[in-house]
Every structure is written in structure tokens, then in C-alpha cells.
Amino acid sequence: MARTSRSDYSGWQVVIGLETHAQLSTASKIFSGASTAFGAEPNTQASVVDLALPGVLPVLNRGAVERAIRFGLAVGATIAPRSVFARKNYFYPDLPKGYQISQYEIPVVQGGSLACIVEGKGFEPYAKTVRLTRAHLEEDAGKSLHEDYSGMSGIDLNRAGTPLLEIVTEPDIQVDDIEQAASEAVAYARALHSLVTWLGICDGNMQEGSFRCDANVSVRRPGAPLGTRCEIKNLNSFRFMHQAIVHEARRQVDLIEAGDRVVQETRLYDPDRDETRSMRSKEDAMDYRYFPDPDLLPLEIDAAWIERVRAGLPELPAAMRARFVSSLGLSDYDAGLLTGDAATARYFEDVVAALPCGQAKLAANWVNGDVSAALNAAGMAMAGCPVTAAQLAGLLARVADGTINQKTAKEVFAVLWSGEAASADAVIDSRGLRQISDAGALVAIVDAVLAANPKSVEEFRAGKEKAFNSLVGQVMKQSRGKANPQQVNDILREKLAG
Amino acid sequence: MSLCKEDVQRIAHLARLAITDDEARRTLAQLNDIFGMIERMRAVDTEGIEPMSHPLDGAQRLRADAVTDIPDRERNLANAPARQDGLFLVPRVIE
Amino acid sequence: MSDALHQLPLAELAKRLAARELSAVELARHFLGRMERHRGLNAFLDVRPEVTLAQAQAADDRRARGEAGALLGIPIAHKDIFVTRDFASTAASRMLEGYMSPFDATVVDRLAKAGMVTLGKVNCDEFAMGSSNENSAYGPVLNPWDAAAVPGGSSGGSSAAVAARIAPVATATDTGGSIREPAAFCGITGTKPTYGRPSRWGMIAFASSLDTAGLMTVSAEDAAWVLSAMCGFDPNDSTSVDRPDEDFARDLAWPVQGLRIGVPKEFFAPGLQPDVERAVRAALETYRSMGATLVDISLPNAELGIPVYYVVAPAECSSNLSRFDGVRYGHRAKDHGDLADMIKRSRAEGFGPEPKRRILIGTYVLSHGYYDAYYIKAQQVRRLIANEFQQAFTQCDVIAGPVTTSVAFGFGEKAADPVSMYMSDLYTIPGSLAGVPSVSIPCGFGDGANASRPVGLQLMANYFDEARLLGVAHQYQLATDWHRRVPAAFAA
Question: Taking residues B76-82, what's their average pLDDT?
């Protein structure tokens, strides 16, 4: 790929549709009683059904259907009262039956939509809604291992039969800027990831392949008919997804500009070389000979089942976000961050619940600020946060009641994070961090600072506001950070004015 | 409608059956006889008739989500033509 | 006395076993001895006397511990379409030569739990595809009545073993007539229950929406006993019908007085050989003399069963047989190039001509551009045929007619012409497409050169009406002795 890329891609529109395979978080496989746990020894979780031994038959897992319904309700889709499993026939060594059981003509989830916030360089964040075409149940394939086994490849069928929900969008991403189009795709994928983990139907682990996105990318002149699309696979992180789409869109524009044409094909993204390359074409990919699986009668879902699932749905991120704004008074931005994933939202709600009324903003600042930063630095997820919601609430309660200031709070937080103490109060007491709010003690410190810094006093009186900050800093330093900053301000103003 | 030899080769490829030219030629005549016989069915008026994919007009029965099967790998792989380290071995898969 | 054991009805064997006049081990030895003596029939594919005798001993031990049960210690042969842990399961194909299943088919398991002792695995057409047993990769089975005649197929090993009294009962499978046609050709009783009644778990699939397990027995009474143990709900087969177990012998004594027997005129159209028609009409006359009423009915689309079947069954089979790719089990070609070549050659070498032919037909009818014209069309006509049965059953209780157009044909007679071979199932396919229960019972012999070749009478009933159906068959067998006839060479 030595083609030189243009620097200007203006005048082209990128059209993207996404297909996501979310592994459903069932205990057992979609059609067998074998475990779905990741990482077992090869073929120890492949049952006779998963191996497609002669004489075996599939029996559908109710838990997989239930998760599909959960998803459908969360995106406002229609749950098909009757859907059909079909066989998609093709030969591949990791596909034991020589066909994949999937849903073709009548999927279980039909329609629906997903809202997301698009962020990126060069534009203000904006809201976008992507329509879903469908979501259907199917089974995952096994894996071919390409290490050398006596000159051959190994086949591990542990993953075969893991339930998947394939979620397909309309080609609703149509943007005249390549980078921005990629940002929209990533925003959708993030929102979807957040939703499926929020609903508890998928663990969302992209490294282990639990959440896999494929992007159908085409380019055209704005207003022109849709161009020929390529499907890009292997987008196993949001960053790669962005890079791959940008690369692929540019490749297509380059081709067309050079007088070539885009060939419809499946391309694999190689993050090491930042390029997409044509997969060795799966021969006959166009003729899967779908037909209704005669081993499985139609799947019927009655209204009562749907209502039971609906009753068990958690508050969804969009609703929770709106509630945080309206009843807790948070900014939409903060509320959006807090509802980015279920664990964070739950953590935040636990902290708020343990605090006196009116401290939600303080809690939001901490969860989105110090807690989030510490987790990022440690490469951890909220689920593994060493500071519990109760501990953080205990800490923030001391900020709220003026026992410590924000600066000290950070110090206490670090101690709690390290696990050296069980509660903020214990840290405050053992280290003597209680804020000095005693006016007499503060006045004494202020007087001493004023006496020691006549130059600053003079400058302030000459109108330099900066000098005031320097004096506050000195007082805080003298109090070893324990002075109540507001009080210090007040006393200083009074003294300097007098 | 009748098939030609290329049709036979195309379906044989789809079905992953190695077939020689000679076999394709012999098979062609038989398949055309069979499709000639099948052709009679196509004259029936089936307007509005729901296709019957199954003798049982019922709903699918589901099972509870529970791990009920701990596979016996040794036994399940015992018939494998080639295996190593618990894996089935096949000629190199190139992706 | 023990020489006559193979001539006894199951009820008599059960009585002697219960009275400890006979042990399961003795009984098993008797049939193993007959099997050895009549190896020339080629009915059995895998025989392991040590396994059989161990099972028989276990049955005797169970009885010694106080267990009863009509089938405890009764021997049975299993069609090689059912997978078994203790015997190889090959579907009579090179593809599965030596294949040992890690589990037993539900049918096999249920019968073993009832105490039945496995004599071995019996031959059949490869993957149950055929009407003459000439498609077995391990050679054809001979018809015990006439070594020049085919035993029928696909369950030819099952029918020959029972006709030759090498096994008192054998399992079989029926997709388009594979129980009824060989039962007719071998002069025994073949029973295909309602689709979904017996579990398909462990049956090597041919056409999933048609495959039905059933039995080959000497009499309808024997079938009723064994069928009661064989059928039942199975959570491993989601198409298995969730109904309580039934005693299919409960209606055996029900007289046929007042029974309405529907006689479809399409089953007596030109093409039906005169000797078969004579024997079948005589059987209908017997029923009439016993008090039944004959009702003329029509199944106008029944004759389209064959074209419908040869779209639906190959379509399903082309997909069901895709798992045989030489990767996890089964034949793998010795010489091959890359992966795709390995799969293609393994399949080309492992499958015989008939499975290949059907895979090609099925692949074609499902392929892009032909699906609606063939597959959907066939499913629609299938419904028309099924509806006609429902219409007919408003006029009659059972439907009766011939099983086949002719008595057993000779080896090689139809082998070169698939279409004429496919026509063998003209009268059995409609019932398969509808999924209704059906039996074939012996009702006479052919004429002239065919005087030693049996004729079968087919009886069909509505869904889940097996008990009544077997009762109707049993009443005929009380009045006639065709089913008790044994080919001379196998009587002693």
C-alpha cells in the first residue's frame, strides 16, 4: 500500500452502518448446556452439541432470548411475537455444523434507535440518534489457532455456541468530514457498549471479543447515490475503530480519485500498520443458502413475558441522566459522564445517598474528577475502585461540614486509596488534619503573615490583586493547609481594609 | 429448466464435494431427470398457502440457562483424524 | 424347545423370562447364534457378543433384584442410524467407519433402561437414503424371502433381521417410507409413529423435519409393547412432543366393528401392480367382514409427495451432512492439498453416490435464485398434502392402502435410475410429509415369479392416534396369519 494519500478529502461524504456482535452474558451456551466462561483449556467447554457430533440437536437457552428482549425494550424496538431461526450454510473449520444457526428473515428485535453524544476535534459536542434495523440471536463460531502444530492449525471450539446478539444499524451516519464520520461511529459504538453493559446482557470486554464491531463504510459525493461499501472487521477498540474508518474512507476516496473503483469486500483492520487489507475472500460468501432450521420451531414471545422483562429493566442511562440534571441540579455534561457506565452511576448514587442533601454537585465533581483520574492512572475500572462509595461519602461529608478543605481532602483520598485507613475520619484524626476554623488562631497567623510580608501588603494596597493571593497562600502554608480558605479570605480582607 | 455441467460443478463446489468432469457429466443426466420429476410440483397453485417447514405447528420449547454439561474432552475428541494438545488439527488456515 | 424361541411373540418371551424359565443370557445367546448362522444376509454391521452378553447378564441381575418389566431381557437390534456408545455408529457410510459415539441415542437409552439387550447394529442405506439397501457402503442386505430381491430400504437390515427371526425386534427410522417399505418387502410389521413422538436425539440426521424413529416387529402387538417404552418426551430434542408417556397396547382389544376405513382412490391408480392390489383389496375385504366400513376418500395432491419430498429432504440433508468435513471425526482424505481441498476430497471419498446426489439436489434448491421456486413451493404443496389428510380424517378413522406399487424388486433393477427408485415411496411419502403415524402389516404375497415376495398393507391414522392404529392392525393379525409366516430357510 504505497499509495500516497491526499491531504484534502473535502467534497466527499462518508456513509457508515454498523454491525455489532455482543456476546450475551448467559452461564450456558445458546443451544447447549456447556459453560460460556472465557479462557478454559481448548475444547473443554465444547459439548457434543457444540462439536456437532452425529445425532445432536440444539435446544434454545431462555436466558439468551430474555437478554435480547431486554435489549429490544431498552432501544424502543418491536419484540417480534414470532421469530425464526435459520441456517446460514458455509464451510469453515471453526464452524462445526457447516452452518451457523442465526435469524434471517424474521429477527427477534426489529427497529429501535440509540442516542449518543458525538465528540471530537474541530466541532462542539452534539447529540445524534442512530436508527437500528434489527438485532438477532445467533451462535458464535470457534477459533482457529495459527500457531504451528506439527505444520497444521489447531481448532478450539470452546467459543462455538456462545450466544450473540447481532445489532445492525441503518446507514444513518452520513457526514461530509471523514474524521467526524468516524467520531459518530465511535460515539454510537460507545453508547451501545455502555447500554449493553448497563443492561447486564454483555460484559463488554472488547479484548476478549465479547463486543465486536464491524463497520460498513462507503463514500460518495454529497447527494449522489450510495457508493460501494466495504465491511471492516477486527475493530477491537474504539481507538482502532476510529483509525480504521478514517483509513478506509481515505482509501476509497483515493481509489475513486485515481479512476479506480471500490470493490465490495470484507477488509481486516491491522492496527500495527494502520491499514485495512482485503481478507482472503470467503468463497461463495454470497450464497449462504439460508432456510428455516428444521430442528427449531418458531420462537414465540408472548406479551406477558415482554412485560415481565420490562418490569425488571433498570433505569436506563438517558432517563437517569435527565433525572440527575432535573432533580440533582447537575450539568448535562456531568450527568452524561456519570451515566457513561452502570458501575459509575451506581457508585455516584451510593455516594449521594450517604451525603446530606444538596451535596450532589460535590459528589459529581469528585466522582468525575479525582476518582476517575485515579482509576485512569491505575488502569482500573470502577468495579475495582479501592475507595468504596461509603468511604468517599464519609470524606465528602467532612468537606461539606468544613472539617477539612478540598486540598486536605485530596490528601485523605490518597490515603484511603492506598488502603492504609478505613475511613476519612480515621485519617483526619490520626494525622491532625482538622481544618482550623478557630478565628483566634487564624487571626494570629494572619497577623504574623502580614507582619512578615510588608511588600505584598503594600502592593495590594496599590491595587495589585495578585498580592492578595500570595498572602492567602502564605497563611495556608503557615497553617499547613488546615486553615479554612474562606475564613482566611475574610480575615485578610478585613485586616487589609482596616 | 435443465442444468448444465457448469451448474453441477458450481453446486459441487458450494457443497464442497470434489467432482471430476466425468462424474459431473454423469451426475448431470441424473439431476436433470430428477428435476424433470420435480417440475410437476411447480404447476400447483399455492397462492396464499403458508409454507409448512415442520409437521408440528407449535412454538419452540426453551431450556433454562444453566450449565448442565461438563464435556469429556478425551471422549469427545477420540474420533478426531488429527489432534494435539486438546485441539483438532487441520491443514494451515490462512486468513 | 429353545430352537423355537425366535418364533415366540414378545409376550411369551416376557412371560418365560418373568417365570425364570428363561434367562436373558440364554435368550441373547440364542439370537447371537442365529446371527452367526445367517451372516450371509449381511444384516448386521457391528456385533460384539461380549457387550450383548454383558447387557443380558445385567438384565438378569436386575430381575434377580426384583425388577419386573415386560421388556427386561428382550433382545433388540438397532439401526445404524442411532448412535451407540458400545457399538460403532456408521450410518452405513465410509464417512463414519469405526465411529464411536460418546453418547447413546435417546431411543437406545430408553429401551436399555427398560431392560432391552442390544444384539448389534443393523445395516441400512447410507445415511438412511435409499429404498433398497443397495446404498450401504458395507454391501446390500438380502431379503430373507428371496435372496434375489432387495429387502427394501433404508431400514433393510432391520426388516431382514426381524423377518429372518435373527432379532425379535429392531429399531428403524422412516423419513419417506424407510420403515414401511422394507417391512412390506420383508413381510413383517413396521411402525412409524407420529413425528415428534420419539426423540431424534442421537439419530444421525437425514431430513430433520421428516426423520422419525420407529420399529420393525413381527406383530402389531409386539410393536405396541416396545413403542410404549421407546417414545416419550425428551428435553434434548426441542421438537420432541411434550406429552405424558403412553401405553400403546391399550387399544389392542378394541374391535373394528364400526371402524371407518378411508380408501384413497389415488393409491389404486395405474402403476399399482395387480398382485399387490389383489392382496390389499383382500385385506380390506377382511376388515369389512369384521365389521369395518370402507369409505372412498381422495388425497388429490398425494402424488405430488415425491417431487415435494425430493426438494425438502435433499435440502435438509445437504445442510445436515455439512458437518462431515473431516475435521472433528469421520473420514479424512489421505492425499490432499490445502484446507478446502482436504474438506472436498474427504467428502467426495467418504460419501457414496446417493448422499452425494441428494446433497447436490439440496444445495441447488436452496441456492440463490431457486429457493422460492423450489423450496418454498415444496413447503406450500407440503401443507396442501397435510391439509388433505386432515380433511380425510373427518371422514374416516384410519386410511388404508398399499405400501408400495410392487413387491420387492430385484437387485440392480432400479439402481441405475434414481427416479424409478424414488417412485418406490409413492404411497409412503405423503404420510411422512404430513407427519402422521402409519404402519405396514403383511397381507399376502405376489403372483407368479413373485409368489415368495410379501405384500404390505399400509394403515395411517391421525396425529397421536398410534394406540388405535396398532389396535386396528392387531385385529387384522388376530384374523390372519401372514405376520406369522417365516421364510423357510429361517424357520428352524
Answer: 97
Give CA–CA dist B21/B10, Å, rounded.
12
For residues C212 and C288, give the distance between their C-alpha atoms in angstroms, rounded to a whole number.
31
Note whether B65 contacts A280, CB cutoff 8 Å.
no
Q: How far is B12 from chain C (nearest CA, A)?
A: 6
Cell of A324: 440527575
* Segments in A293-402 forming alpha helices (H): 303-311, 317-328, 332-338, 342-354, 360-366, 372-378, 389-400
Q: How far apart are the first and last CA of chain A?
A: 76
Residue of A nearest to C206 (CA): A55
User: What residue ranges do the domains of chain C occupy?
Assistant: 2-252+481-491
* Distance from C-alpha of C243 to C-alpha of C248, rounded to nearest angstrom: 13
Compute the distance between CA of residue C231 and CA of residue C222 in angstroms, rounded to an integer: 14
Each domain of chain A, given as residue ranges in start order, spans 13-304, 315-431, 439-497
Average pLDDT, 10 consecutive residues per value, chain C (492 residues): 80 97 98 97 98 98 96 98 98 98 98 98 98 97 98 98 98 98 98 98 98 98 98 97 96 97 96 97 98 98 96 98 98 95 98 97 94 95 97 98 97 90 93 98 97 98 98 98 96 91
**What does the pLDDT look like over C352-380, one tens digit per residue?**
999 999 999 999 999 988 999 999 999 99
Please state which CATH class domain A439-497 belongs to. mainly alpha
- pTM given for the model: 0.91
Give the chain C residue whose CA is nearest to the CA of B62.
Answer: C238
Judge contact between A66 and A25, C-beta under 8 A. no
Domains of chain B: 5-43 (1.10.20)
- B56: contact with A, CB 8 A cutoff: yes
Tell me what ipTM this predicted complex has: 0.97
Q: How many CA atoms lie within 13 A of A226 on its CB side?
A: 15
A-C CB pairs within 8 A amount to 105
The pLDDT assigned to A280 comes to 56
Chain B contact for C139 (CB, 8 A cutoff):
no
- C257-315 pLDDT tens trace: 999 999 999 999 999 999 999 999 999 999 999 999 999 999 999 999 999 999 999 99
- Of the CATH numbers 3.40.190.10, 3.90.1300.10, 3.40.630.30, 3.40.140.10, which one belongs to the domain with range C2-252+481-491? 3.90.1300.10
pLDDT in tens, A252-282: 999 999 999 999 889 999 888 888 888 755 4
* Alpha-carbon span C157 to C134, nearest angstrom: 11
Radius of gyration of chain A (CA): 29
Residue (of A194, A171, A199) closest to A68 by Cα position: A199
